Amino acid sequence: MRILVTGSGGHLGEALMRTFRGSRTDAIGLDIRPTPFTDRVGSIVDRNFVNQCLQGIEAVLHTATLHKPHVATHRRQDFIDTNLTGTLNLLEESLLAGVKSFVFTSTTSVFGHALTPAHGEPAAWITEKVTPVPKNIYGITKLAAEHLCEHFHRKHKLPCMVLRTSRFFPEMDDDPRARQAYADANLKANELLFRRADIEDVVSAHLLAMEQAVAAGFGRYIISATTPFSREDVHELLADAAAVVRRYVPMYELEYQRRGWSMTSSIDRIYVNALARSQLGWQPRYDFNYAIQRLRANEDYRSPLARAVGSKGYHEAAFAEGPYPVE
Fold first, then answer.
1. SS3 of 145-160
2. What is the pLDDT of residue 313?
3. How confident is the model at residue 318 (pLDDT cuts 50, 70, 90)?
4. 201/221 Cα distance (integer angstroms)
5. Region of 157 on the Ramachandran plot (φ > 0 left; ψ -120 to 50 alpha; else beta)
6. Which residues contact 200 (CB under 8 A, 6 or more apart)?
7. Can you tell me the mean pLDDT for 195-216?
8. Domains, the chain, ranges and CATH?
């Protein structure tokens, strides 16, 4: 099988290309800029270029996108062009090329306002049944691109899988309050409880989705680290998250004390990956329990792949207010 990976210069695209090259899988990397993991340089907005790249391709892993960090630095039209028109070009040309499997990397950001509980409500338990309410052009275009994928499956029988990934980037948080309150590794370890995934697990989810697309036809899945919580915890998580974590992972407390770390006082949303685990057979390894075990052994809790890909940033410029400007 010959595979096209769009966005091969990005975090996930590079991780996929590293994985394919390591297994000697026939994969072609596409990106708008030259990188060590890019074979075709050009834009997915250029349909002729997309047509050329898809010759002989049997599966597409579409990770190329403008991200949330670009909202304050790019026009809304740029998001329409890349995230929507670019996806449409890939779908149209995949259909013409006889592609057998199309996997679209979406984001949990599509849920938008649905992630914030109303006053007096418990923490949001986020499954695929929750209706997205995007709050910016990033979420709007990613959700619209999801609908394009579903349309191409329903109308043209193109096997399409949509993966709504949670945070897997290693860059610092854009919230200055979070950066001041927690060491970066502390913050990311906390997030493994409810809204973060390791990139190695994200890669494995994409490979499973690609393999199962033909049989499934269409699927939409949340890809995030497995939370230890149950739905019965949602009220207490909002009021006293540390007490809930202590019940499920009691050994975390001593390790956090040893490192001078702290647990977040409140958790307002939990991404639930149960559907991906049951339907795709996905078995993510890098959860909060795993992180605590590695920390106790004085080891890095990130996967070898996450460490190899490292930090990329989203802008060439540096910003005084943080890793990227907030809209």
1. HHHHHHHHHHHHCCCE
2. 62
3. low
4. 14
5. left
6. 15, 285, 286, 303, 304, 305, 306
7. 98
8. 3-177+197-225+270-284+305-309 (3.40.50.720)
